[in-house]
Structure formats: structure tokens, C-alpha cells
Specification:
This protein is an alpha/beta fold. It has a domain of 114 residues: Response regulator (Rossmann fold), CATH 3.40.50. It is 43% helix and 16% strand. The protein is built from six helices and five strands, in the order βαβαβαβαβαα. It has a five-stranded parallel beta sheet with strand order 2-1-3-4-5, with helices on both faces.
């Protein structure tokens, strides 16, 4: 069975460490990878694709040295491999224009403002991974214990494959 990854991108090592620690509850189901730049994130994404696995979710900071997070998320829209990947901008410094760009051009799935709460991040990751499964057609049963039951129930009730 192929793996479905979560990728966290931030150029601040301390922030990356906190995010990974907060996502530990997902590790038994979804391996969590990290990158400290847009270029490093692309390399991780290529490795995941080459291995035949999937990228379910990317949590990405906006303000980074080199290419910013919004531009990375926008570029992901040009790849069939990352088209279904859920994209979450995790930042305290994205201005309105950058956020609008992320929503309109990168199909941003969610925005989390820094500082965030652990409960908020866990809730958003559960919801977004659930939407990834519903949209991509992957079997949800092996992951039912970690996915968002309300989102699953609503999709089943509505007869939909998740949101866009």
C-alpha cells in the first residue's frame, strides 16, 4: 500500500520542530516530512512522487528566504501529482494580496495565522486530510480513526467526493 505524506515547509527550524511535534498523532498513518525552503520542498515532493507515494497535505509558511510559500503553492497547481494535495498556508506575515493570490491561484485549502494553537492545527489537518481522501478517491477505511468523522459523514450524506 502506498504512503500518503504530510509536508511541512518553514525556514525557521524552531517552528518546523513545533509543527512536527504537534503532528505526531498523525505519524502512524501519514509520514511527516519537512523542508526549510521551496527548493527543498520540491525535492521532497519529487522523491515522494518517484517512490509511488502521495502527498496529501502541505503546511507551508509564506515568508521564507528565497521563494515564498505562496509562490510554491501556486507552482504546485501546475503538476498533476500535487493537484489534489491540500494546501495550508501557516503564517503570520502574508499580506492580503499574497493571501488572495494563494486562494485564487494556488487553490489554498486553509489559512492558519501564527501564532496558532495545537488543537487548531490538529483539527485543520484532520479536515484537510479527509478532504484529500474524498477528492482523490483513496480508500478511507484504513484511516478512519484519524480522519475527521464529521467531514466524512457530511460527504456520505451529501453524496459528494469532498470540496475543491
Amino acid at each position: 500500500m502506498s504512503k500518503i505524506y504530510i509536508l511541512c515547509v518553514d525556514d525557521e527550524p524552531d517552528v518546523l520542530e513545533v509543527i512536527v511535534r504537534e503532528l505526531e498523532i498523525f505519524e502512524d498513518y501519514f509520514p511527516v516530512e519537512t523542508a526549510s525552503s521551496a527548493d527543498e520542498a520540491r525535492a521532497v515532493i519529487r522523491d515522494i512522487e518517484k517512490s509511488g507515494d502521495h502527498l496529501g497535505l502541505i503546511l507551508c509558511d509564506h515568508v521564507m528566504i528565497g521563494e515564498n510559500g505562496v509562490d510554491l503553492l501556486i507552482s504546485m497547481q501546475n503538476s498533476d501529482f500535487t493537484l489534489d494535495t491540500r494546501k495550508v498556508l501557516l503564517t503570520g506575515q502574508a499580506g492580503l494580496e499574497a493571501t488572495v493570490d494563494a486562494v485564487n491561484r494556488a487553490s489554498l485549502s486553509h489559512y492558519i495565522a501564527k501564532p496558532w494553537s495545537k488543537d487548531e492545527v490538529i483539527k485543520v489537518v484532520k479536515e484537510q486530510m479527509t478532504h484529500f481522501f474524498l477528492r482523490s478517491g483513496h480508500d478511507t477505511l484504513p484511516y478512519a480513526m484519524i480522519l475527521d468523522p464529521m467531514t466524512l459523514a457530511k460527504a456520505l450524506h451529501d453524496g459528494l467526493g469532498g470540496d475543491r
